[in-house]
Write a structure and sequence with these properties.
Blueprint (H helix, E strand, L loop, with lengths): L2 H26 L11 E3 L6 E6 L9 E9 L10 E8 L4 E2 L5 E7 L2 E8 L5 E10 L2 E10 L1
Antiparallel strand pairs: 1-2, 2-3, 3-7, 4-5, 4-8, 6-7, 8-9
Length: 146
C-alpha cells in the first residue's frame, strides 16, 4: 500500500471506531438517577396541572401507542378546548420522536387522546406538551424510560 492509501485507511478506521464507540455509549447510557418519572405535574409556569397515561401497558418498544392527556387548572377544574402541541425525543441521543403524535380527540373532562406515539428503541424518552387555553400558554415535559 502506498503511504497515502495507508493514511486514508487509518483515518477511515479511526472514524469508524469513534462512530462505533459513540453508538455503543448512546445505547448503553443510563438515564440520570434523579430523573423525574412522575406522570402528573404542574406546567413550567404553574398555569395547568397535567397528567399523562398510556391507554395500555406495559409500554413497549416498536408499536404505536395512544395516550390520554388530562389538563386541569391548578385547583382541579378540567380545561376544555385546549390547543396542544406535542414534541419530544431522546435527550441522550439528540434526536426527536420517530413519529408525529397528535391530539385526535377531546374526551371531555379536560381529557385529550394523543395518538401516534412510538418509541423505536429502549432508553430515556421525553414527551413535551405545549398547552394553550383561555388565552394562556404553558409547557410541560414528561420523562419515559423503556
Amino acid at each position: 500500500m502506498s503511504g497515502m492509501r495507508k493514511t486514508i485507511f487509518v483515518v477511515l478506521a479511526l472514524v469508524a471506531m469513534a462512530a462505533a464507540i459513540g453508538v455503543y455509549m448512546m445505547i448503553h447510557m443510563s438515564p440520570p438517577d434523579d430523573l423525574d418519572l412522575s406522570r402528573s405535574k404542574a406546567t413550567a409556569n404553574g398555569l395547568f396541572q397535567v397528567t399523562i397515561a398510556p391507554e395500555s401497558e406495559p409500554l413497549r418498544q416498536g408499536p404505536l401507542h395512544a395516550w390520554i392527556l388530562t389538563v386541569e387548572t391548578p385547583d382541579g377544574v378540567p380545561v376544555e378546548a385546549a390547543e396542544i402541541a406535542i414534541d419530544g425525543g431522546m435527550p441522550q441521543h439528540g434526536h426527536g420522536l420517530p413519529t408525529s403524535p397528535a391530539v385526535t380527540g377531546s374526551l371531555g373532562d379536560g381529557r385529550y387522546r394523543i395518538e401516534g406515539v412510538r418509541f423505536n428503541m429502549g432508553g430515556w424518552w421525553e414527551l413535551k406538551f405545549a398547552i394553550a387555553a383561555d388565552g394562556r400558554m404553558d409547557e410541560v415535559d414528561f420523562n419515559i424510560v423503556l
